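Milestone M4 deliverable, item 7.
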Amino acid sequence: MGGSKASSSSSKKKKTLPVLEESITTLAQMDLNVPKGAPIVSLFNDRIRPVLDAVDRLRNMNLVDEGIQLPTIVVVGDQSSGKSSVLESLAGISLPRGQGICTRVPLIMRLQHHSNPIPELFLEFNGKIVPTEEQNISQAINLATDEIAGNGKGISNIPLTLAVKKKGVPDLTMVDLPGITRVPVHGQPEDIYDQIRDIIMEYIKPEESIILNVLSATVDFPTCESIRMSQSVDKTGDRTLAVVTKADKAPEGLQEKVIADDVQIGLGYVCVRNRIGEESYEEARIEEAKLFQTHPLLSKIDKSIVGVPVLAQKLVQIQASSISRCFPEMVKKINDKLNNNLTELNKLPKSMSSVAEAMTAFMRIIGSVKESLKKIILRGEFDEYTDERRFHCTARLVEMLNQYSEELHKSDHVNNFLMEEISNLEEAKEIALPNFLPRATFLNILQGKVTGISSIPMAFVDRLWDYIGDVVIAVLMRHVEDFYQLQLSARRAGHNLIAKMKESSMKWVMEMVEMEKLTDYTCNPEFLSEWNRLMIQKEGFIDAVLDAEKNTSKVNLEGYGEIEIGHLRQFPHLLHQAFDLRMRMIAYWKIVLRRLVDVMALHLQYSVHNLVDRDLEMEIVTELMAPHGGGIERLMEESPSVATKRSKLNGSVKKLQECKSVLANIMDRVSCFGD
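Output delivered:
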């Protein structure tokens, strides 16, 4: 049963859209040869009117705020082009007139024919609906405009909606925009042209907009600013319709101007006569029909492009075509945006309402942080940070250790070879048997060498914990980014812990250095084997120094290359001891340096393991539970940014769901006609 029902629903949706498009397209193909004396009434049937109501409702729901454009007829024209007269003729009402800009806000005119002889008119703005009478409509529009744009002569892009339900008007929705003026009059801002241009471009730029460009027959079309603006967004003119006003004022050459189409109007022209003086709208239509039938020049213009009734019917036809073209894509965009917003909403952190939920979330965060750090620092797994090399910690730590080792193993300075040993032996003289190697001398030289490199381990520890600290803080922030109330505590805990670890390591390094200075010891057999290997060169070296006949100035010594020996001939009594002392130091120094690197690596691994497995969690908990930490309950607070985003997404989802419901109702109604 469930499968059958789903199949039926799916089938219904598939055929609804084509039926809707067919209904609208039928209207779009209607004949424009209407009787010139007929009322301006569109031939909408019951299938089409609900569609226009739905589009108007979507417009009132500000669907455009979601980045989804609606099919719209946008009316533009230069100041004094007769734009207001055209709209008055279509709506059968009087709009505000006067000097300067009469339309100071976008005026959404929603015209609807109904059979009741009593018109219904009302304004919608600032969230309220204001009914009005036909004779008071101009004053009502002015009052509403003042409330939206102020009492001066400035303009605003906040729209005002005028709904006109009147017998004989075409079913149309149009947006009338301020007339284009370049020179500000008294009371208008200096940048009035730029403000008007920005509003017009906002409305005519979308591909869904149909541009109704009002041109005066008394001017050259290419010089009109409204033409330049429409051409900038509709270069081919495929969505621009031109209505030429004041045909009776400049009939000479009008037919040629329209036929030549120098400004590329893709949807064609319609020439009209403006209402004059106290003429009623019915009288004006009769006079218009006579003009285009009897005037020697104007009567030559094709009857399919003259008169307000033709303009009304053409607008209805274009509007139907535009809706037919845009409707399927509009449905798709609403569904896509709704799905995207729901996905984004689900990605937001779950709001917590109890301490138990907060504790669960906290433990999950700590577990995630520890796992991430174990992967990148201990196990060398970088799937979470594939392209971010600074988080490939095992590789970076090995590089840092290698650099540390290289700094320690820099070659000894070979100038004045053996002079340090000789100097120390001179000062170690005592009344004792000759040729004994004083251990104090060895320790004294060793202490000097250890002191000389003591800054290298210190600097390494400093760099090491700075790097680890940056990584730990970055990982922490990544996992608590959705919990702003944890961010400060986590960051503070991370910095405090790294400072403690660095201090502990510094203390350990200082102790290690002091131990190396304190005594000379190793059980490594390499010390003796290396010393014995080096001592093989002793006899040859001493002979070269003491051979007065050859007077050799340099000798090649393994591990040093060529060294100067002339300065050593004045110390023949100390050469044996000095050479032995140097070779012992070379053999032992290798052990010391290796030990400094090895124990540093072990200390590093041990410290990082403790940090990840135990210390970090303890530090965060301690920080969170401190008086200034706010306790675990802080997790129940939502960050302002997340709260704002959640509210915005919820509002958007609600609006899109309502819009989707509006469209679904229309498709259901149209599908009933198809059945």
